[in-house]
Design brief:
Helix content is 29%, strand content 21%. With 581 residues, the chain is of the alpha/beta class.
Length: 581
């Protein structure tokens, strides 16, 4: 029904003539478009996966035909779909589907880790690998224990044991695992990681940092294909249910690409996916990377999948003190962390990938690592000109103030992961960085104020796959769950800035901002309907509990909690409850 209130709403110019009818029309909505020209609307019309009209009910009524699905949203809040620019569903879920050990606790104590290993051994008799996740070195330190081979050997000496740290920065293994992998005092450290050793004998301690633990993975049987396919399928399901329409799965190999392609061919890729091929064997062996990067990556290309990116680690993690800093670590005279590649290697690689049109996604947790990455991109721009490839600084945990403006100047995305944005035991573990560095950690505000592009990546399983947790933490810098109070790191940003970070900035990061990322005429019909108005000040401290009622990707229903499409041919693929990831 057209009323005086709808007629008074500023309208947009429709891209199509009224003789064309819409597939879907949404009316009586409160739509935040993220379009600077017309930021609010009341109704949209969608045809063939694109917005054909955006404005008020008067604007969309001419496009309603006999077969148009018209939905009255009764004042619900609508916005563009979300973009999660760094996540690993395979690392999070495939181990469980492959029946690996899952300790299942956020910050398990050493005793809980031990008991989980013993229980797994009892339920899986024999002499096979006990492999799984997670332990946390910080909790061992709190308990006055050292996480090493001796600790594992004390209760599990005869079977190989390999347990990942929750940061994915290191792995703890026992003597049997070291023997099977032939890791000894004479084993040379890989360039992209290192083996912690006894300072006198040089014998491995049982902690393998960054790329060093790929030696263990190379010794083990690979993750089964069925586990990878199911992991991606469930991850996509969860992301669609939380309003994600675009994502990046980083660290992939041929097996993982085949799993994604099979889902794509079956019509189950409910999110746009950019998959980044691993440059090094830093998490698992990638035996055919050269063929993939040389051109086979194009075999996987479709409307919703591409593998035109490469991921690698420049440095390590804070917890293992392997993040590469611009000055020595607190309490150290010389130790600045570990740079996994030489600066010369980095420059040559970035220039070469840029020339080939391949996006580089660089793991940089230390301010020294991101500085070297930006220098390398500057070299690529000087040698290649502006190729149009937008490279990505992953994690960007701490950045030098002098580098903030370079993100805009070099067209580089600053991607931040939310695990330390609010007070928590995990954030406290990261405080080893030092007070000064942590106060400029996760510097969304600095990058945005300098005109650069900032995005969020959940980095699941290091932190929750639920993007709304990080969304709230960006704005409040407080613990969404009230578990810990006190100091938070970095400066908050506004609600409007956070929405742009999660929408149009993500589309820019994927190179599709001209076609997606805002609710605009002619763009892909990607939107989400929420159970609350994000601009209602009363819910500011409860944004993490936001529920997505409906997700549309290219006008296709990928999530329908409200049941709006259950009686049509456009019914959502996913309507069952979400798993508790």
């Amino acid at each position: 029904m057209i009323t005086s209130s709808t007629l008074s709403t500023p309208s947009f110019i429709a891209a199509s003539s009224p003789t064309e009818t819409a597939d879907i029309v949404l009316i009586n909505a409160n739509i935040h478009t993220v379009d600077d020209n017309t930021p609010w609307a009341k109704a949209v019309a969608i045809r063939s996966g694109r917005f054909m009209a955006v404005g008020n009910e008067y604007d969309v009524t001419p496009f309603i035909g006999d077969h148009t699905k018209v939905i009255d949203l009764e004042g619900r809040f609508v916005m563009p779909g979300l973009y999660d620019m760094h996540t690993h569903p395979d690392l999070a879920l495939a181990p469980g589907y492959a029946d690996y050990l899952n300790i299942g606790l956020e910050d398990p104590t050493p005793e809980e880790v031990k008991q989980a290993i013993l229980d797994y051994a009892d339920s899986h008799p024999g002499d096979g690998w006990i492999y799984g996740q997670y332990f946390v070195r910080y909790t061992f330190k709190q308990a006055g224990l050292v996480a090493d081979r001796d600790w594992l050997d004390s209760f599990m000496p005869d079977r190989p044991v390999a347990i990942l740290d929750r940061s994915w920065g290191c792995m703890m293994v026992n003597s049997r695992a070291l023997a099977l992998a032939n890791i000894t005092a004479e084993t040379q450290d890989p360039r992209h990681g290192y083996i912690e050793r006894d300072s006198i004998t040089h014998e491995p301690s049982g902690i393998l940092v960054d790329g060093a633990y790929a030696i263990i993975h190379a010794t083990m049987p690979p993750t089964p294909q069925h586990a990878l396919t199911r992991a991606y399928r469930e991850g996509l399901h969860f992301q669609s249910g939380h309003g994600v329409v675009g994502t990046k799965y980083v660290h992939v190999c041929e097996h993982r690409l085949n799993a994604l392609r099979s889902l794509d061919q079956d019509g189950k890729l409910s999110v746009r996916v950019e998959a980044a091929i691993s440059w090094q064997d830093d998490i698992f062996p990638v035996k055919r990377r050269w063929e993939l990067l040389a051109g086979e990556r194009h075999y996987y290309r479709s409307n919703r999948l591409n593998a035109n990116a490469v991921k690698f680690h420049f440095d390590g993690t804070h917890e293992s003190r392997s993040s590469y800093l611009s000055t020595p670590w607190p309490g150290e005279k010389n130790w600045r962390g570990h740079l996994n590649l030489t600066p010369e290697h980095i420059v040559d690689m970035v220039v070469d990938m840029d020339r080939k049109g391949i996006r580089v996604i660089a793991h940089c947790t230390g301010d020294g690592a991101s500085d070297i990455f930006l220098d390398a991109v500057a070299q690529a721009r000087a040698r290649n000109g502006n190729s149009g490839v937008r490279h990505q600084c992953a994690h960007s945990t701490t950045l030098l103030d002098t580098n903030l403006a370079r993100f805009k100047a070099l067209d580089v995305t600053a991607e931040f992961s939310p695990v330390g944005w609010f007070p928590s035991s995990f954030a406290n573990a990261r405080a080893v960085f030092g007070e000064e560095r942590m106060q400029r950690a996760y510097n969304f505000k600095g990058v945005l104020e300098a005109g650069g592009n900032a995005v969020m990546g959940t980095d699941w399983p290091v932190s929750s796959l639920n993007p709304w947790i990080g969304f709230e933490a960006m704005i409040t810098r407080q613990n969404p769950f009230g578990e810990e109070e006190g100091q938070f790191f970095g400066q908050p940003i506004s609600l409007e800035q956070a929405i742009r970070v999660m929408t149009i900035n993500g589309a820019w990061c994927m190179g599709i901002e001209q076609h997606a990322g805002s609710i605009s005429i002619g763009k892909s019909a990607d939107l989400i309907v929420l159970d609350r108005d994000l601009f209602d000040i009363a819910i500011k401290g409860n944004l993490h509990a936001t529920q997505v009622e409906l997700t549309l990707l290219e006008g296709e229903v990928t999530w329908d909690r409200m049941g709006a499409f259950t009686d049509t041919d456009m019914a959502a693929t996913w309507q069952e409850p979400l798993p508790a990831f």
